[in-house]
Amino acid sequence: MRRRLRRTRASAAPDFGLFDASGAAGRAPVQRVRVLLPLPLPEPFDYRAPASMRLAPGDHVIAPVGPRELLGVVWSVEEGEDAARGADNLKPITERLPGPPLDDTARRFIEWTARYVIASPGAIMRMVVRAPEALRDPPVVHVYAPTPGFDGKLTETRLRVQAEAAREPETAAELARRAGVSPGVVKAMIDQGALTRSARSEDPPFAEPDLSRAGHPLSPAQANAAEDLQTLVRQGGFAAALLDGVTGSGKTEVYLEAVAEALAADPAAQVLVLLPEIALTQAVLARFEARFGASPVEWHSAIKPAHRRRAWREIAAGRARLVVGARSALFLPFANLRLIVIDEEHDPSYKQDEGVAYQARDLAVARAKLGECAIVLASATPSLETLVNAQSGRYAHVKLPARHGAAVLPDVELIDLRLDPPEKGKWLSPALVAATADSLARGEQALLYMNRRGYAPLTLCRACGHRMQSPETESWLVEHRYSGRLVCHLTGFSMPKPKACPKCLTPDSFVSIGPGVERIHEEVLERFPEARIEIFSSDTAPNGEAVRALIDRMERGDIDILIGTQIVAKGRDFPLLTLVGVIDADLGLKGGDLRAGERTFQLLSQVAGRAGRAELKGRALIQTYAPDEAVMQALAAMDRDGFLAAEAQARELVGMPPYGRLAAIVVSSPSEEQAHAAANELGAAAPNTDGVDVWGPAPAPLAVVRGRHRRRFLIRADRGVDLSAYMAAWMTRVKLTSAVRIQIDIDPYSFL
Ligand code: ADP
Predict the structure, then answer these.
(1) Quick check: is 700 in a domain?
(2) Cα separation of 164 and 175, whole Å?
(3) Mutation pick for ligand 1 pocket among 253, 408, 602 (CB with most ligand atoms within 8 Å)
(4) From the CA of 557, how far away is ligand 1's center (Å)?
């Protein structure tokens, strides 16, 4: 049975008699309410509702907390004799806000998430209630329409205004503008009674998806996959599926059919499609719009406050039906969510490391379970976690075997940099240079991939060996030559590049070590002075508009060679792009990260897949010093399943995810001694439990960040262990001073 989650609101006016549990005629029963506040507290706070206010769970309220007034959510309501006892001593709720209440699923999701990631429920609530203005009635503007039956005389000018107002009621200023008259004319008409005022909401509902439209005709394989997903959606209840198909196989086309099914099956259904933030470009949104005749409701970090308010309210009220967003959209207060799609489910941007650390993909599955809805995870290179779930039958495994139409996968070749090295001080091997020249000669495009912004990752003094380091952070400053600055990619710190070494004061003594995209640009310019070359990174395309402009230039063929960071890995097809060169395939393998191999395979196969998506056959050349590594061999053979099977086996052997579970703790303090002592204290307090290994404390690889000294623990648990409960129990055993910060990361993706 599909549960409808909308709730009838309790009457705002006290309902005398009917609710009278105390027996005293004429008095509403006392309501004792527990309110979740956006504070790091383990529990909701107790209040009472004033006599004039009736509250229900999920209501948004303003409540006094010390000298402040905070926005909170009613978590539970008690009435009756027990509740009344002592209630007079409780502070009254100040106000109930008119916005849509948080439904039961949203509240349980907050509780579940808080417990899972070991955060306070208040911290999670803050991620849900992201647009407090949406809880007030929407702002209105006054608009004017012709007064019905008005028979006064109107000049020709005034008739023009009347005609405009008849076409569409508008504000006085706008009517004047449209009719080409002075504002005084409109004002006079209002005074005359020719125009009548009404209120128009600033936050009107979004256009509904048009479900009568059809998608592209699907190939038989696509149609089968679509049917599988639609069946899942039709069945109702929780179900998960991995939609597994190479880049360009039509996964988006297929899941759009599942979206259409969910929206059509229930006129109140809502659908959420999560995309990596980077993919949330106009091009992707335009595809949704083309399919459903209306833009989906967007949600990501860059939307404007007015849109945020409007979107939040419409989603909470159940009126916004199709939402496309980044990971934070998972916390939106949907009223009747029936399907979640996670596109590029393997993408690392679903993991949030800062603040409350969470993996949106995993939380999305939990949300789908709580709300009894379907979830589709789509990828060409699924995470090992998801693939294992599909192989074990926990998720349906829906496969799309080939690229759509004539497009075929590129030939992938490894270039062994030990045998075919670039010239000294250069980064492109002779083979890659030759291939690039060929592609230029044929009038086709080349993409050179280098996943590092800026010019060089290390700036060194030739005279004294001093390395330019980020202040109070163990991270080198990356030279950005075009802006003349040294930038810390970790903390965002930047400074002009000094003229002399700050240590030995020797002028002009710096050497740049290693390449970034700007340095590759310099080399390519030198080699191909006639070519049109551009860099695509978050520096050259810092916002959606710039990204779109760059993609347009690439599509039009205005660029011959594009040098890009991972921003190029996904996005639109470039029909003329036939060569992809990976400058340094080993870059992501350094650092001892559990998922380094998996991640390198995902990124590089995606980048390689950019070659030859249209009718022209593509070629990918991968430069590496480690061609024998399993991941490089798998890339050359395009053997994803072989690679993942080997990776799975290796992880199973040592009980690493997905065969075991991990948590990380970072203990940090401005004082190294204090961090050290606190970490030791914490380590001594670790509960001894079967199936749990605690490693650490050890200085973190990034031992100092923003002046805080960091110590790390890594905790590994067998699958059957409730790792969250273990961690929570551990944390109750220690009381540390406030200068020491403890950050817990369940299922960490960063080990720095
Ligand atoms: P994926 O999401 O697997 O990368 P897409 O759904 O983006 O694949 O499809 C790749 C390209 O092929 C897109 O431009 C898409 O519009 C086109 N395409 C896929 N399937 C069809 C189809 N059945 N009819 C028309 N075009 C299609």
Answers:
(1) yes
(2) 7
(3) 253
(4) 21
Report how far ligand 1's centroid is from the alpha carbon of 127 (Å).
34
Distance CA 15, CA 10 (A): 10
Query: Does 134 reside within a domain?
Result: no
Closest CA to 339 of 253, 274, 250: 274
pLDDT tens-digit readout, 302-336: 899 999 999 999 999 999 999 999 999 999 999 99
Q: Can you give the pLDDT at residue 575?
A: 83
Per the domain annotation, does 460 fall within a domain?
no
Tens-place pLDDT, residues 228-265: 999 999 999 999 999 999 877 899 999 999 999 999 99
**214 C-alpha to ligand 1 centroid (Å):** 15
Same domain, residue pair 274 and 320? yes
Same domain, 396 and 417: no
Residue nearest to atom 24 of ligand 1 (CA): 216
pLDDT at 613: 64
Atom of ligand 1 at shortest distance to CA of 343?
2
Ligand 1 first shell, C-beta below 6 A = 216-219, 222, 245, 247-253, 404, 573
Structural domain boundaries, residue 286: 220-400
φ and ψ at 478, to 5 degrees? -95, 130
Amino acid 612: pLDDT: 77
Instruction: Tell me the pLDDT band of 591, cut-offs 50, 70 and 90.
Output: low
**Residue 398 near residue 230, CB atoms below 8 Å:** no
Cα–ligand 1 centroid distance for 404 (angstroms) = 6
Q: How far is the CA of 558 from the centre of ligand 1 (A)?
A: 24
Q: What integer best gives the mean pLDDT of the chain?
A: 90
Amino acid 16: pLDDT: 32
**Nearest ligand 1 atom to alpha carbon 245:** 3
Closest residue by Cα to atom 5, ligand 1, is 250
Does 151 reside within a domain?
A: yes
Both 530 and 665 in a single domain? Answer: no
Band (pLDDT 50/70/90 cuts) for residue 589 is confident
Indicate whether 562 and 440 sit together in one domain: yes
391 alpha carbon to ligand 1 midpoint, in Å? Answer: 26
Of ligand 1's listed atoms, the one at least distance from the Cα of 287 is 16
Distance CA 154, CA 269 (A): 49
- Bigger pLDDT: 11 or 463? 463
Do 188 and 81 belong to one domain? Answer: no
Residues 6+ apart with CB under 8 A from 706: 472, 473, 491
What integer pLDDT is reported at residue 750 of this predicted model? 86
**Tens of pLDDT, residues 681-699:** 999 999 999 999 999 899 9
Looking at residue 307, its pLDDT comes to 93
For residues 122 and 153, membership in a common domain is answered with: no
pLDDT > 80? residue 154: yes
| Total domains present in the chain | 5
Q: Atom 6 (ligand 1): residue with closest C-alpha?
A: 250
Could you tell me if 565 and 619 lie in one domain?
yes
Closest CA to 108 of 400, 366, 381, 462: 366
> Which pLDDT belongs to residue 3?
40
Percent pLDDT > 70 in the chain is 94
**How many angstroms separate the alpha carbon of residue 5 from the centre of ligand 1?**
35
Distance from the alpha carbon of residue 394 to the mean position of ligand 1, in angstroms: 27
pLDDT top residue among 618 and 428: 428
Region at 682 (left for phi over 0; alpha for psi -120 to 50; beta for the rest): alpha
Q: Residue 382: left if φ>0, alpha if ψ -120 to 50, beta else—which one?
A: beta
- Give pLDDT, residue 541: 87
Of all atoms in ligand 1, which is nearest to the CA of residue 216? Answer: 24
* Mutational pocket test of ligand 1: of 404, 574, 615, the residue with most ligand atoms within 8 Å of the beta carbon: 404
Give CA–CA dist 192/198, Å, rounded: 16
Q: Indicate the pairing of strand 708-718 with strand 660-669.
A: antiparallel
